[in-house]
Amino acid sequence: MKFMKWKTLIITCAVCILPILLGVALWDKLPETMAIHFNMYNQPDNFASKGFVVFGLPVMMVILQIICCVINDIMIKQYGERKKFTTVTKWIIPIMAIILQVVTLLYGLGMMIDIRRVAMLIVAGIFIVMGNYMPKFDYINNYDVEAYKARKINRFIGILMVIMGILAVISIFLPPVYSVVWLFLLIPYAVFCIVYGIKVGRKNEKND
Question: Can you name the residues that pair with 38 across neighbouring β-strands?
């Protein structure tokens, strides 16, 4: 696979497994069974062995990162590179791997961390950053949509993404139920994006 950006793949995968070092350093202090999933009230509802948390979770993140990089590089080969957007997408999983693993280990040590707020903050960051770059992302142009139409669609999606990100941040300071409400808002968000894209595309066809 000559089209693969191997340097980025190796570096980002290395970052994904870095938390293993912290887990090994804290091994003797960690409980044998650790929480790996929480409900909206910050109560653990799924558990796993210490070994799986320390070694298994980072390995799973590496696998996800490999898939992410392969998909990105295939898109680059077919449609050309959008460097800033590609950089952002390739670093989402490594950053998440570091934050989530550290939080999980600290919670295992007895630190009372609000997982819901941490998760929503990560999601908010992704939406705001990705929304900022969406107007520069014109792969949709390769699906027979003129460049200026593609920019218009992506600008609309980007604005909505930023708004959703801001709402996610606001939910952090409100009761947990508001984070659930935010999740349900993803449905109309997706519908608005699809309908707007179709509307702009059809208008383009009529003008032709």
Answer: 44
